[in-house]
Amino acid sequence: MSFGRIFIVSGSHSPESQSSRFAEYIKSRLNVLRISAPDTVCVHDLGSEPLPLWQNGSVYSRADEVVQADAVILISPEWHGMATPALKNWFLYMESGWLSHKPVLLCGVSGGNGGLYPVLELRSFSFKNFRPNYIPEHLVVKNVESVVCLREVSDDVSKVRRRIDYVLMTLRAYMVGFESVRKNLPDVSREFKYGL
Asked: Between 95 and 58, where is the model more confident?
């Protein structure tokens, strides 16, 4: 696998959010780590490019980018201990095969000391019909503003940044492995579209 194609979703409802800044930080690290090139990473910021509430027949304008992606990164701020409604709505736009058998990295971010609950919630509710493969590693980034800033950083922030790089390199390993998995899958059957 050469440079991987990665689709990042920033799940905040707010334009110019810390989640979108974190998405751009992740995009830059993917480039620095030579996991992807700037033109192979797409970011959908749900704050600046919101989706209407899904209705039957709704069409996702960025479907091709998701379908072509080798991996997906989902970023959700923690709102009252939950993932955002915008991110849950995004899942409803997905067709059943778009995320299937692709590694997905979950990231919870918080301006304070939270961030874990969106990761737990997304792992538990969003896998049945879409078949994403959430990698065992995830990111919970507390005090996210200090992580994405460019000024001098503390030892704690430096450690979080090293953890981010480690998790992104782990995602890269899964991308390589799942490329082989997707090539060897049996034909998709409508009979088992929704699992059992």
From this structure: 58
